[in-house]
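Cross-check.
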Amino acid sequence: MAAVFGSLNNDFATANITDVIGYAEIKCTLLPFFVATEPYSSGYTYHDIILIVSSVTTVLCLIFTVSLVSVQLSNWVKPREQKQIVRVILFPTVFAFFNLFSVWFYAKSWILLPFPELYECFALVAMFYLLVLYVSPHDSTRTHHFHNLQRLHQFGRHRGEPKHQKGSVRWFQLLWVGVFQVLPVKLITSLIDWILSASWCPLTYQLSITSLAITVVESVSTSICIASVIMFAKRVAPDLKGTKTRAKLISFKGIVGITLTQTPVFVGIASYGVFKRTKYVAVLDFTVGTPAFMTCCEMFIISVIFLWTFTAEPYLDLRSSMPRCRSTGGALMEVLDIRDILMGCWSMVKIVFCRGDRHLMDHDGNALENEHHDMTSKA
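Predicted model, tokenized:
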């Protein structure tokens, strides 16, 4: 126990990390070993520096996001598309703010970080909705559109040739499920995270096999969602010309991929002993503070890129021919109305449990019947 008492007295040179973690688990106490550091010659600690830089980049991210969102809201001519665009544009600021507070309050990061991750899933679904609206903007013809969209071989000597004459309704439904499953999965795993972290010592839970299993489930679910969106965009690429879809996907999916792997990498480096705490950089500085600080900086960069990839210019050009649908406040309320997301989740349930053919829902919650079935019945 000498190593433990050495850490309690800030004598980190004699501290054994295994003993310290074991003692911290028993006492459920955040020992100085995890957070205590000495300042640099400037008088600032490592934590002070990353907190200041994170604050600056987060404020700049907010400025760019608000400016872009305000232009979209004040030129509300295609509300169904712009509603999803604004939701995606808000992603960097939401992520930056929660990560800023994680830098600020290490001990509460386990409570804060699931919130931006949940919004990340929400934004992924919004991105999928946007692509669907680009391809088939009218609810009444959407099932007809996918019924007539040929399934093509993607690989082998028959690549590019039709697979069958049944259309792509079933394919679209499978991708719909692949995208929407991320929301209930993330919500459930986040609730389990919060409950177990509150019931157990947070450190004990974070080091448990249960926490690792939940992380794996979340990673697999998010990967399926991203893969489904990419598959959809690739298949309907000819219909997406002129929408900057590739740039949108690269800028958005790229940062989602980084955030998905960034924190586990830092935690893994610390867990396997590659990182050694110093008198200037503590354990939580490295495992919590550094990835959260990097995320704040990355979100600032993404908010700048979004000025181009999610520009409001196409809607500004339409103002002369299309009337503005709502006031700025009304447009904002429309963005905050998530009934379309909830109905999309309900549609996913129907597809999974009711064989889907007649239960695919559009993004406003109106049933899209199987077009082929209807045409046959009417005939």
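Residues 340 and 364 are 5 Å apart (CA to CA). Confidence is low (pLDDT under 50) at residues 1-11, 358-379. Passed to J.P. for a second look.
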